[in-house]
Amino acid sequence: MEGRIKGQLLKGTTTLLVLTVLRDGELYGYEIAQRIRERSGGAFVPSEGSLYPALHSLEAAGALEASWQASDRGPRRRYYKITKTGLGMLKEHAQEWATFSLGMARAVGGADQ
Amino acid sequence: MEGRIKGQLLKGTTTLLVLTVLRDGELYGYEIAQRIRERSGGAFVPSEGSLYPALHSLEAAGALEASWQASDRGPRRRYYKITKTGLGMLKEHAQEWATFSLGMARAVGGADQ
DNA sequence: CACCGTATATCAGATAACGAGGTAGCCCGA
DNA sequence: TCGGGCTACCTCGTTATCTGATATACGGTG
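Predict the joint structure of the above. Result:
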């Protein structure tokens, strides 16, 4: 599918996307980016410059717990696991997204088709 | 009444919102903000600091044509009208929003499963 | 005259994405 | 054994644009 999204529209969604993919299990950074790309149908390809700072920020906020683990093929990986705090944050962000999405649907949706 | 959205999520949506409300007719700035607030169900209340620069930018890009008109009660108003270029831009932004929205729906699913 | 609602405009500050650059481990082929 | 490619992490400067504060000015009301 064509049309990769980047730029301003993505602002504020990285946190929600990261927490969402981590709800299903422990993942490392590189893998998180791949999951987001897959789950969005290729629409989102988080850049490293936005993903890693976001992970550090979420860890500092207590939303994620991280640990280094060796890989049998390649450099070591930093695995992230969502915490209770993170689950609460996920719920908040999901709710905020729902409100935002609904507002946009009302404002621009249907009207143009 | 849902919470008002502000902050990062709004980045990049002002252009689409402005062009959308102007498709239905000529409006002045203050009125554009009110329409967006109404149509979004109160979720979006564009601040002056984001709306006016956006209008100037759209006018400079040829998406809008503007003219000063006196008001019988209050200060003069600057009316904005969407151009052919603006209609094309609206179509592009609406398409981008659709892709973005679909990607989010796929990635985060039906809110919280 | 003071105040409020209307109406436009601009500014400093904050946020967070992007691309580019760097480090490093492992595998494969020349 | 050297180089290139993939994996995997990290950081930096640049860019876009939203927020809240501040400013100007008109008209009606108390």
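Residues 97 and 110 of chain B are 18 Å apart (CA to CA).
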